[in-house]
Design brief:
The complex is a heterodimer of chains A (about 80) and B (about 475). Chain A has helices spanning about 5-20, 55-60. Chain A has about 80 residues and is mainly α. The longest helix of chain A has 18 residues, at about 5-20. In chain B, helix 8 links the parallel strand 7 and strand 8 (about 295). Chain B has one domain (about 1-485): Alpha-Beta Complex (Amidase signature (AS) enzymes), CATH 3.90.1300.10. The two termini of chain B are about 20 Å apart. Classes of the chains: A mainly alpha (about 80), B alpha/beta (about 475). The interface between A and B is large, with 39 and 60 residues.
Chain lengths: ~80, ~475
């Protein structure tokens, strides 16, 4: 981000967080958080071996790759 | 026939089944229509004319052999976040500008299995973040009812394309109103199904506990048909619910005798435009005329919905969007010398400003020290919002309200006032937080001719009630055939 973008976004984020402080008005003591709106728990499937994406398909969209791997800038020197 | 493109989905299928028209003719007519009007509407990011005609030829063959599926030969459009192997999936972002998915989304598989023809991919706010489609990295789709007006968002291109007769129907997604709000602003029908009703496999994820795919159509019958095709359990989406899919078209035409319509006082807010309120009241009167009775209800935590949403959705988004690292797919900055620089610069250049803003809010809301104050608290208030609905649905079967406080504004206006844009989502957000189904359908026009939508919400998996009531309103008001002049 450049300086102008940084400045603009900082102000906008502050406004949003000030607005979010509205939640302080609510009494949430003893209220459990909701992360999932349905009653379903632990959707498990049978542990069966299934075909996965072929390698050339998985590599198809890579910005840089070899015939068998993604290529990234050197990590260890 | 010159105006095949203007047919509704069910209408077109009837003519196809009677042998009056072929899918190839119908598809050509729609491709021609796109060519003629999309320069003005800018609804499509990509059009796959050749593939569409191939699919149409195949559909005509299948029908001739007596193997026609529910949507056999019907040309449809897709919001550009459904993965497709034959067309790019950009999600409205530079990040995915050249991305071709290695598999089709579950709903795309279902459409194709039903014989549908895919015309192309439609414009949207980048990564579905926005309610105007102005955050699309490539083009801003315009409202077919008036040049220079927004068509809403994030599924704006899809709503505009349906309204402009550039497809018979479309699929969009809705995280905080992204199907219903553009449907309302463009004068078409839009349904957000119950969370878990439709598989999210193969959708580019925004906020995983809120996202749901659903249809945008020219009328309620078409909406019921589309839902019938796309609904159902899918083992590849762990939040998909194992539950039979009803015959949604079976309830259409029944009267509403005994149905209780809840009118939430918190939804008729001061910011509501008087013309919007007038049209919505007419829609509610139509429900009464069909036999329903009104009850006043209260959803006391409504005023906190926007704050809850703009913490939870960005929190989930920042986690989902961490995958865009410039390594396996998506934009990679070509000049970076080391891995960290590559991550930073690829994301800085690949994402637009609204996406960056939400990633930053989400990261902050989840960070150590602020997690309890923001994300956890928002999740707790979400429980109270959900309980509001549980209590309300003991007193009523359906909740009726406006979809948006105002009709479509001009493109570019108000863009700096971020918070007021977020606040305009106030009436649609709660359905996503509670996971309930909700429908938007046309109920009138403003004096300057802009469409107004009626919002109906029901309890989990009660899509049939929404469609039954929506059909009654549509029949009485008789405005579903009205078209913009293009």
């Amino acid at each position: 981000m450049d300086e102008a973008e940084l400045h603009r976004i900082t102000e906008q984020l502050s406004a949003i967080l000030r607005y979010a402080a509205k939640l302080d008005e609510v009494d949430i003591s003893g209220v459990a958080p909701t992360t999932h709106t349905q009653d379903a728990v632990n959707a498990l499937r049978d542990d069966e071996i299934q075909a996965s994406l072929p390698r050339e398909q998985a590599l198809k969209n890579a910005p840089k790759c070899t015939a068998e791997a993604f290529v990234v800038p050197q990590v260890l020197t | 026939m010159e105006t095949l493109y203007s047919l509704g989905l069910q209408q077109a299928l009837t003519l196809l089944n009677q042998g009056e028209i072929s899918s190839v003719e119908l598809t050509r007519s729609l491709l021609q229509r796109i060519e003629e009007v999309d320069g003005r509407i800018k609804a499509y990011l990509s059009v796959g004319a050749e593939q569409a005609l191939d699919q149409a030829r195949r559909a005509d063959t299948e029908r001739a052999q007596g193997r026609a599926g529910l949507l056999c030969g019907a040309p449809l459009g897709l919001k550009d976040l459904f993965c497709t192997t034959e067309l790019p999936t950009t999600c409205g972002s530079r990040m995915l500008e050249h991305f071709i998915a290695p598999y089709n989304a579950a709903v795309v598989e279902k459409l194709l299995a039903a014989g549908a023809v895919i015309l192309g991919k439609q414009a949207m706010d980048e990564f579905a973040m926005g309610s105007t489609s102005e955050h699309c990295a490539f083009q801003i789709p315009e409202n077919p009812w008036k040049a220079g007006r927004i068509c809403g968002g994030s599924s704006g291109g899809s709503a505009a394309a349906v309204a402009a007769d550039e497809c018979l129907a479309a699929l969009g997604t809705d995280t905080g109103g992204s199907i219903r709000q553009p449907a309302s602003l463009c004068g078409v029908v839009g349904l957000k199904p119950t969370y878990g009703r439709v598989s999210r496999y193969g959708l580019v994820a925004f906020a995983s506990s809120l996202d749901q795919a659903g249809p945008l159509t020219k009328n309620i019958t078409d909406c019921a048909l589309m839902l019938e095709v796309i609904a159902g359990f899918d083992g590849r989406d762990s939040t998909s619910i194992r539950r039979p899919v009803p015959n949604y078209r079976g309830v259409l035409g029944r009267d509403l005798q005994g149905m209780r319509i809840g009118i939430p006082k918190e939804y008729f807010i001061r910011a509501l435009d008087t013309e919007v309120e007038g049209a919505v009241r007419k829609g509610i009167a139509a429900l009464e005329n069909a036999g329903a009775r009104l009850v006043e209800i209260s959803l006391p935590h409504t005023e906190y919905c926007v704050a809850v949403y703009y913490l939870i959705a960005p929190a989930e988004a920042c986690s989902n969007l961490a995958r865009f690292d410039g390594i396996r797919y998506g934009y990679r900055d070509p000049e970076s010398r080391d891995l960290l620089e590559q991550y930073c610069r690829s994301r800085a250049r690949g994402f637009g400003e609204e996406v960056k803003r939400r990633i930053l809010i989400g990261t902050y809301a989840l960070s150590a020290g602020y997690y309890d104050a923001y994300y956890k608290k928002a999740s707790q208030v979400r429980t109270l919002i959900k309980e509001d609905f549980n209590s309300a649905f003991k007193e009523c079967d359906l909740i009726a309200s406006p979809v948006c406080p105002r009709t479509a504004r001009e493109i570019g206006a108000q863009q700096d006032d971020l918070l007021s844009m977020y606040l305009s989502d106030v009436l649609t957000i709660s359905a996503n937080l509670a996971g309930i189904p909700a429908l938007s359908l046309p109920c009138g026009f403003s004096t300057e001719g802009m469409p107004i939508g009626l919002h109906l919400q029901a309890s989990h998996f009660q899509e049939e009630i929404l469609l039954q009531a929506g059909h009654a309103v549509e029949t009485q008001l008789g405005i579903s055939g009205m078209k913009p002049v293009l």
